[in-house]
Amino acid sequence: MKVLMVSYEVYPLAKVGGLADVVGSLPEYLKKQGIDVQIAMPYHRVVDAKAKTIEKTELVLNTEKLKENYPFEVYKTYLEAGDIPVFLLKNDRLIDSDDVYGGSDLALQALGFSSAVFQLVKILNPDIVHCNDWQTGMVPVFLKTFMNEETPKTLLTIHNLGYQGTFDRYYYELSGLPEIYWEKGYVSTGGMFNFLKSGIVFSDFVSTVSPSYAEEIKTEEYGMGLNTLLLRLGERLVGIINGIDYSEYDPATDKRIPANFCLEDLSGKKECKKVLQEELGLACSEKPLIGLISRLVDQKGLDILAQVTEDLMKHDLQLVILGTGEERYEKMFKMLAAKFPGKVSANITFDINLAQKIYAGSDMFLMPSKYEPCGLGQMFAMRYGTVPIVRFTGGLKDTVKEFNFETEEGNGFGFYEYESIKLKEAIERALRAYNSEKWSTIVKNAMKTDCSWEKSAGEYKKLYKRILKSERRPIDA
User: Fold this and answer.
1) pLDDT digit string (tens) for 231-250?
2) How many domains does the chain have?
3) What angle do CA 394, 397, 400 make, to 5 degrees?
4) pLDDT tens, position by position, 413-435
5) For position 407, which CATH number holds?
């Protein structure tokens, strides 16, 4: 079975968010399952500093289906983990920014890239083209419209339905696609050209990054205007939880943390906490240390957290924040740190190394998200024995279970209703547990939680087989 994965970001070549971690890790584990995996991505400027070797091929992909041709030169590199081929599609006119998502015309860039991928598919001849997020949503459209009976099956994975790629109708006119698609509403929402909707309509199967999120997006609350379309997919909408790379994220061998530790010997975790406190100017003590690593935006639950920060500061605890985002939240955490020196550390930046130290050195990890398609932070935290406190939504609901003091089952704490009082209560339950004899049990339960890619890769293999056996899905908006 040959699979071509298409993504705008792939770790370590280009990373902005969790998508890069997924596409940078999953192929290695799919290969272990016997699947022949290749990757196609834009040749972003940042790739030059990340790839060890890049070779130029003789291929030039012309976007002949668009109103104007944008030739893409094809370069090739490999992911070191799994020796996975990565095709880098280069057009300096369209990919014209140092930032992965900072192009001067993102709609035209995504159109050109998708059209070039269509040409690449005809050369590589995969069985399945696995697309990711709205930037690749037009690939299934081009394939189903312009290819013959040899058209490969397609899977589109939605990593976050909140980002759909909606643009003026002008860009559809540049696509070279039939006018009837627009008339029938296959490619538009509210009079705007919608890349993600287009991909959903034309893909054979659609997946999301957790089973719970797959159910949530069928509802009006979470469906972002596409819930009716997604509901009609029936069994062709599948949720598979993401995983993390256990070889890279291993507290027993990780060189990025001050001291190593494992399930059988947690003494190194105490050292990680002590070093983190010293580095961030927090008082060195046994007080519970809560970490928060996040984009500082409403979606991550910061609006309800803002309502209870003053009350939380009355507890004997410490809080470490790492992230950037909306100015009001950056200012809020800076002011909190100034008001409570030695108790709060606000790090308004993006620092991968500090993030790793927070995962390893904190006692608890806070993710009170309004919605969370999958979430990786809670997985990293549990791998390092840091107990998650979450809102039970999406992937957080699928990976974190409330600790039961009687049965000693569960690996964290959480709440359902999106209310500040419920968040406060969940944190207070965690604080009480920290001061009980059950804490080490909760920590070990968290570390035993299987968030590895092995299980998820097996689920993707099953899905790929289903897709290959399925009849072609008719176009129906």
Assistant:
1) 999 999 999 999 998 988 99
2) 2
3) 140
4) 999 999 999 999 999 999 999 99
5) 3.40.50.2000
